[in-house]
Amino acid sequence: MKLSDIIKAYIEEHNYSMRTFANICGISTSQMSNMARGINSQGEKSIPRPDMLKKLAAGMGIGYSELISAMNDNALIVVSENGDELAPVKQALIDKILIATPEQLEKIQSIINLVMP
């Protein structure tokens, strides 16, 4: 299930406004709105960072892994942040790869093959 669908269903089921649910989760209304639309603040398709997903899960009263599991149908890939200072960079790369066109994927693969033969 898409994260946007999970958010919309939860809001509807609990008769919350977007603002109320964002407050419960401890995030801004604009961040919640973007997650509900599956985009980032620049309007690009994106998967939220793990810290945002953790806040969302807490606001829903479920565990982080339970939220990830519910999203698993959408082939979600989330980089663990456990002491990995490059986690945000890795996540940003994965987010871009997930929305890349076939032509872009070919170019990415070529670059990877050059750097990591």
Largest sheet, in brief, is: none
Low-pLDDT windows of residues: none
- Could you name the CATH class? Mainly Alpha
**What is the overall number of helices?**
7
| CATH-scheme architecture | Orthogonal Bundle
Global mean pLDDT: 82
Distance between the amino and carboxyl termini: 36 Å
Please, how many domains? Answer: 1
- Say how many strands there are: 0
Please outline what is shown here.
The chain is an all-alpha fold and 117 residues long. The chain contains seven helices and no strands.
Give your account of this protein's structure:
By secondary structure, this protein is mostly helical. The chain has a single domain (3-115), classed as 434 Repressor (Amino-terminal Domain) (Orthogonal Bundle), CATH 1.10.260. The chain is 62% helix and 0% strand. The chain has seven helices and no strands. It has helices at residues 3-13, 18-25, 29-37, 50-60, 64-71, 87-98, 102-115. Helix 2 crosses helix 3 and helix 2 crosses helix 4 (50-60). The mean pLDDT is 82.
Blueprint of the fold:
Blueprint lengths: L2 H11 L4 H8 L3 H9 L12 H11 L3 H8 L15 H12 L3 H14 L2
Descriptive tags:
single chain; mainly alpha; 7 helices; 434 Repressor (Amino-terminal Domain); 62% helix; 117 residues
